Amino acid sequence: MSSLAEALRSAPVVLDGGLATLLEARGHDLSSALWSARLLRDDPGAVEAAHGEFFRAGAQVATTASYQASFEGFAAAGLDEDDTVRLLRESVACARRARDAEAPGGWVAASVGPYGAVRADGSEYRGDYGLSVPELRAFHRPRLAVLAEAGADVLALETIPCLSEVEALLTELEGSGHPAWVSLSAVGTRTRQAEPLAEAFAMAADVPEVIAVGVNCCAPADVLPALTATATIRPAVAYPNSGQAWDAESRCWTGVSAFHPDDVRAWVEAGARLVGGCCRVGPDDIRDLSRALGRWS
């Protein structure tokens, strides 16, 4: 099996959609602060089945259920460090089992969510942490180490809202030798803290482990403006949410979906080589996106 970086040189690769969205649709309660990471402890088979469903829909990459998983988050749920390491590894194992069963030529991306995800208060869409770069590095370091050794093909450093967290993650990544993509949650050409996206992508250009840069969990309409900021630094990654709004207090989505799979053509023309969806994007959407990509290419 070729590396994901090698595959991007020849054709766009289809990512999966919103794992938590699918798990909720299958009747699982994700209302706790651990979100989908709770099922790594309570029902890993459900996580594996969800990955398999996305692969059958045409996804070539499974993104693990580790977005909300952290040592701090699991500790708050009563789990010790050994349990946390085991569950982080299990997140990769679930995706690998689904990949081997449904799409042997595919890849597994270990999700590394932002610091705000552990707060479960929507701050990953604001970036108002009040933490320094060294503090953010200390938070991310142990989880990165476990996921990098767990057998994933790539790390997905995703939904990053601010430049300070980009800097922290890239500093920890550099020299590790493990491939990763860097994806921000953005509005137009700005981070969630209104900083230029181009600055984040420029920082990533100096880190050889980065195979792609781009955006995720933004509105679909924000993908093309954001991709203009990637220039030719790296291949681009684009996997927006449905365009609906997240209410962190009531923990629900509001509004109507604006995710249109046929938009993939414009994303690829703008430089995207990893394309898919995020929250509220299900297997049917990924199937349609994959078919649209096939029709065009």
From TrEMBL:
The keyword Transferase applies. Its cofactor is Zn(2+). Gene3D superfamilies: Homocysteine-binding-like domain. Its EC number is 2.1.1.10. PROSITE patterns: HCY. One of its GO terms (molecular function) is S-adenosylmethionine-homocysteine S-methyltransferase activity. GO terms for biological process: methionine biosynthetic process; methylation; S-methylmethionine cycle. Residues 1-293 form the Hcy-binding domain. Pfam families: S-methyl_trans. Zn(2+) binds at residues 217, 278-279. The keyword Membrane does not apply. Keywords: Metal-binding, Methyltransferase, Transferase, Zinc. This is Homocysteine S-methyltransferase ybgG. The gene is ybgG.
